[in-house]
Predict the structure of Glutaminase.
Amino acid sequence: MQKTLQRYIEKNRAIAVQGEVADYIPELRKASVNTLGATVATADGDVVSAGDCSTQMTMQSVSKVMTLILALMDLGEEAVFSRVGMEPTGDPFNSIYKLEVRREAKPLNPMINAGAIAVSSMIVGKSVEDRLERIMDLVRVMSGNPDISYSREVYESEAAYGDRNRALAYFLKEHGMIEDVEEVLDLYFRQCAIVVTCEDLAKIGLCLAQFGRNAEGRQVVPPDIARLVKTFMVTCGMYDESGEFAIRVGIPAKSGVSGAIMASVPNRMGIGVVGPALNKRGNSVAGVKLLEDIAREWELSIF
Ligand code: GLN
């Protein structure tokens, strides 16, 4: 397993140069285009890593899965889906377009920025710090890593340049979907800056693959919520590349602009990938190809 992973990482590293590191969040520019690493955590208890797997990255949009889980655990499906939909958009992750043309301010799904901002506004807690701590606690129990924290630099960098997200949030406020814009954004920018490694992502993927049971065997997320978020990962997890990804790879996965991908093969394994060079859709260019290769090799497609 390790040798196969290593071989496909070496093969796909060359593809990474076709992509570009996200630059709209200045701190993310520091990542290297050549970085590519992955960890696989299986239901049998094996943890296998290859390439630049110890690279630390921020979760970015992978955190949208965490907040969706927490909001569902806190408030239940009815309340959550009264403020965010269940349909893919086919638009870029930070698009404002559908919010306006549909004349309905309810964002189409929780995996795009508008939807994730609406979900973050539902996280229960006394303060932003308290809510962030609850999100990080969920990451800690799902990954089995008690040391999870967030990057102040990346958070501040995004907060300083996050005008598109500010625009989305003010639009949501205008239509009564959220209240305190700056507070919600403050939480959203911080959750995006939670720092993880491939192993953390693989273990989170494994936890979802085991229907909410983490690597230590503890049920930390209700099974029906684990199933629900994996379904969102299939339909919306790779933004406007979700359809092609489902066909070529066929694994529930969620990407982030840091080049992170968290993938979950039901009952079998979780996979964490780091590859900061992104394609036009904002997904790790080499990471997607790597997953395509290993999905074929190990017959991982769920379809
Ligand atoms: N923090 C990023 C943003 O809001 C997350 C987007 C992403 O990872 N695609 O723009």
In short: The CA atoms of residues 241 and 281 lie 7 Å apart.
